[in-house]
Amino acid sequence: MEKDMLKEIFRLQSKFDQAVVAHRGLDFTKEVWIQKEILAIISELSEILDEVNFKWWKDPQELDQDRLKEEIVDLLHFFVSMCLKAEIGPEELYQAYLEKNKENFARQKGKTDRPGYAWNK
Q: In CATH, what number is assigned to the domain containing residue 37?
């Protein structure tokens, strides 16, 4: 039987978050937790940018695929943690993703009341 990878990621992140809260004695409101997760995500995005040579004023380095993967996984950790703090589980996230994906395709096909989304034909 194959594991549901998204559920497993959420389970492991929940276990990790609980350990950090317990060992560090953290006690924030939901709003503050989400703010902290957003700041951590911004920090990780910045680290990803550094890995992909966005600084045109510096000599580019060879792309380190392992380091890039590590930073993207760090981003995932904080994203899933934010979902947990917002009380969004893997099933709810998946369903919301499906709905939004469908809406995004409809917008690109010009099937929306919002202007500016249709693909050029």
A: 1.10.287
Q: Is residue 105 part of a domain?
A: no
Name the residue range of residue 18's domain.
Answer: 5-88
Q: What is the mean pLDDT of the chain?
A: 93
Is 107 among the domain residues?
no
Asked, for residue 117, whether it belongs to a domain, the answer is no
Three-state secondary structure of the chain: CCCCHHHHHHHHHHHHHHHHHHHHCCCCCHHHHHHHHHHHHHHHHHHHHHHCCCCCCCCCCCCCHHHHHHHHHHHHHHHHHHHHHCCCCHHHHHHHHHHHHHHHHHHHCCCCCCCCCCCCC
Residue 58: pLDDT over 60: yes
Give the model confidence (pLDDT) of 69-88 as tens digits.
Answer: 999 999 999 999 999 999 99
- Sorting pLDDT into bands at 50, 70 and 90, what band is 113? confident
Assigned domain for 69 exists = yes
**Position 120 pLDDT exceeds 70:** no
